[in-house]
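Subject: Protein record for review, amino acid sequence with backbone structure tokens
Concerning: The relation between a protein's sequence and the shape of its backbone.
How to read it: Take the token row as a discrete description of the fold.
Enclosed: The protein record, placed directly beneath this head.
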Amino acid sequence: MVVNSVQCFKKKKLIEKIYGEDRISNLPETILHHILSFLPTKDAVLTSALATSWRYLWKSYHSIDICDWESMNGGDKINGKMSLSEFVNSVLLLNEASNMIKFSLMCTECDPDYFDNWISTLISRNVQELVISVVLKNRYVFPHCLFTSGGSLRILKIDFVMGVSIKIPTSVLFSSLKVLHFKNIAFSCEESMQEISFSCSILDELFIYQCTWLDIKVVNIHAPTLQTLMILDRWDIGLLDSEIKINAESLMSLRFTSHLPYKYSLCHLSSVVNAYIDVHGSQRVSTVLGRIICNVKNLELSNRSFETLIDQDVSVMFTFTELIHLSFLYISKDRGLSAEQLIDMLSCMPMIQSLSFPEGLLFVGFDQIVSPTLESFLLHLKSVDIQAFPGNENELGFVNFLLKTARVLEKITIDLTCRKRYRLDKRCHKWGHVNEKERIVQEDKKRITERLQRLAKFSNCKMEIKGNMFGSFYYDSD
């Protein structure tokens, strides 16, 4: 024993002489845990071979992060020795942390028999953050302890990748949950009541991404402290009788993408400040959408949402008195909108202060408008931002319309970064004529800039023109 100790001491001294002193292993355990936090669990386990001080360190670590890329590529072994399920079992069995901060699992396949035990074990160890992204082949019933968690679970993110169906109890209680993400899940109810309730008393963030509600008539979500809500529905399902009721009187930010396959009742949304809306194709749109954006201050609206609002005369039903900033998004490229439609919509937004067209002007017909049609129009509009500005007669007509209509307009920002086609003489069809192409592009940019400046000549509005035009060239065959 003494001989072995002497040999180990000499070996340690030799290693220190060659590689230097092992200062990292002598750091406090809390710092070593912090170092481990940057490693996936598979690599953290391997650190047990580094030195004596590292041998059992990972076992007391409070975070488990397993991302099985080998399984994702068709393999079923971890480090060539054991299956994923065996590895997760070993890690949970040997880990000695009574209070687990985080457990994250990403893999292509998971055995539900193991899965039940893992979830129950983690809940019993007061896990605070649970992130699951797995592929299950059949319907699955989560352990009830997950949906009635007491004071431990703060973050829950579940993604079943292939959209497996899971059964949940009629009453779900998340008393301490702050973040909840459901993705690719087909929910069904354990009982025949066909009504489920989520009670989340201190929830801050809720994402419902491409989920479906199977044979469930009513879904009640009560989240009085909810700040951020994102709903993205699947596009491949028809209209259903299910009703989604969300009570979120503290909601500040909403992102809603849907063709409204369900009846949505979004209650007490007067506090919403920022909203992204992309909904269309349903007779349910007018009531839902009008109520959502009535009190919004900053709104991003897709062109298909805009078209649906116009078709269903929502502008007649509602006046958006709180709206200050409006941004139009070009989601569906095959939909054309008219200048008259934009004017009709803006007429029910009396307090609008800024407009943004991040993907270019979506509306046509401004080149045909000679004079403003409304005397009390755009009384508060101060700034307009237009991206991808090709400088055709329609866009120039829109700028002219703004300058004549918006009496307090202070600034128009125009980005000339756009694609145009330029016709070159056959003689330019040779290498080395880059300068000729650049000259043509710059001349076109100069021409558009001069026309814009002439429009703003007798206005107090500041015109900021930026961007570099680029184009594709074609050649005469003559």
Notes: Confidence is low (pLDDT under 50) at residues 71-76.
